[in-house]
């Protein structure tokens, strides 16, 4: 089965390198010319694409593959799907983006189902920095697909000697775990940036996990999915690592540092979407509210952290 990856940023490039171990891979990028010329993405410096990766700027050619990985930022996913004229009948569309679409408050699987109803949607998510995958370091991810048979086929196709995929049929749980952990990672970065300490960060991670589980299960996810790679696993990685852009964003906000708007920070928009979704569903998401306040409403970080501490005492 042929594989194409749409999106020539850090993650698309890393996946192309890793999956080329299994056979030829097509990598489509919006700005393909420099990638074709240098075989390197500026988003993933120092990683050169192997010869078995064909880089193209021709979207129609790329989507002729049977399995198509979607590796663009979440807020670009619906636009990218709209650009593809082909109904992609029978193909597997594997979303690798982590977030919630702000316009529709939907995750990637629903966007795919609306745009390409004759395709099968799947999610590839879990704790993994692009640089680790590209350098062949061991990584374990969740491959979620509502169809057990299709999920098993994708699991086999997309696993490599160093990229170990676990299968799940809980698409909602897998995609929400990946989306929501980015919001909590911003809060953890802010906590460390303010100098509040590692104990406070552990508290934020734990209460953040409760918040993630509350919203996800309300939307039909299984709690055990949130406890797996796509939820707890990715939360642990992203909330504690300087490699995380979401964590660094929160830390920079707290320190009053300049923010580079070109860097992909999925949790910022996702926090807004989460707050809107939580209000609609009547689910309490105080950490997501705090992140929206500091990222979009100009609330000073110390006050937003104080708001969290000032909430009424409650049972765990
Ligand atoms: N970088 C990482 O370590 C990981 C990233 N992810 C997820 O992968 C997704 C993509 O992230 P990265 O590759 O890291 O971001 P990135 O910022 O490195 O690259 C994003 C790429 O998407 C392209 N792009 C943006 N809008 C587009 C559009 N409308 N059409 C075509 N191309 C478009 C940009 O030109 C850029 O090349 C995100 O949802 C992220 O959460 C998931 C796991 C790990
Ligand atoms: O999703 C990731 C790790 O699993 C990457 O995190 P950042 O987007 O915060 O860099």
TrEMBL record:
Residues the entry annotates as binding NADPH: 11, 30, 98, 130, 245, 263, 266
Catalyzed reactions: sn-glycerol 3-phosphate + NADP(+) = dihydroxyacetone phosphate + NADPH + H(+); sn-glycerol 3-phosphate + NAD(+) = dihydroxyacetone phosphate + NADH + H(+)
Any Gene Ontology biological process: carbohydrate metabolic process
Gene3D superfamilies recorded: N-(1-d-carboxylethyl)-l-norvaline Dehydrogenase, domain 2 (1.10.1040.10), NAD(P)-binding Rossmann-like Domain (3.40.50.720)
GO (cellular component) term, any one: cytosol
Name of the top EC class for this enzyme: oxidoreductase
Principal localisation: cytoplasm
Residues binding sn-glycerol 3-phosphate, per UniProt: 98, 126, 128, 181, 234, 244-246
Localisation: Cytoplasm
UniProt-recorded name of the protein: Glycerol-3-phosphate dehydrogenase [NAD(P)+]
Organism: Thetidibacter halocola
Taxonomic placement: Bacteria, Pseudomonadati, Pseudomonadota, Alphaproteobacteria, Rhodobacterales
